[in-house]
Amino acid sequence: MFNIRSMFSAALLVEAALLVALPGHGLQQAQGKDSMAGMDMSGGKMGDMTDMKSMGPSMAAMAGHMSITPVWPKQPGDEAKAREVVAEAKATMERYKDYRKALADGYVIANPKLEQPQYHFNSEANARASDLHFDPSRPTSLLYRHTEYKQYRLEGVMYTARPNATEEELNERIPLSVARWHEHTNFCEAPADRVKDYQAAHPKFGMFGSIHTKDACEAEGGIFHPYMFTWMIHVFPYEDDFKDVFSMNDDVAHVH
Fold it and tell me: Which of 113, 137, 174, 183 would you label with 81, given CA atoms 20 to 30 Å apart?
């Protein structure tokens, strides 16, 4: 059973692998962004954010290191547009219920030797394409879960957008009145002689660390990364309740 601290290793390694799979989405480009869509969860705006109960422990524990798009007022056609994306995602997933077909089509398992509650199978080609336009039939990642009876059981997909995408661009892909994109931010990389701090009960560094400002990070000898990775969103088409389709709780199974 995974707890938050053991989840850190999986989350960091998986998303590091995802970063490698997403050319042009590295730290240097992200640091050069002029502005960022969404709301920074590290700045005391928790009351403005979605109900944290809707997040799993792993996601909620990274609250100081994430930005999430705000909820936009619902416009006519928003839900219908979101449902079209979900339908196309579900249709695409039919082929990949057999994970070997995903491998045959160029998806690569992120850290297959590391036990994880959720496995990302990443497509470099789809990641590149997602920078230019949104195609629901070409997810950046396929999300699989280990179950008692099946090694890799497909439960969802992940779509990405370039790190400096605007709210308007994200809304055009999947309406922000229906779903919320997220991006990892304010990451303090531990100096080489303090990497064990990532696994500490109360870490200073990393996605679960207490440090989330440049000054505090540099004072501890770390390297500060304002933004990491890409804008991303998980979609779980097999959920019966539509509000769970865009869930931000990856700790629970989205297969039934």
Answer: 183
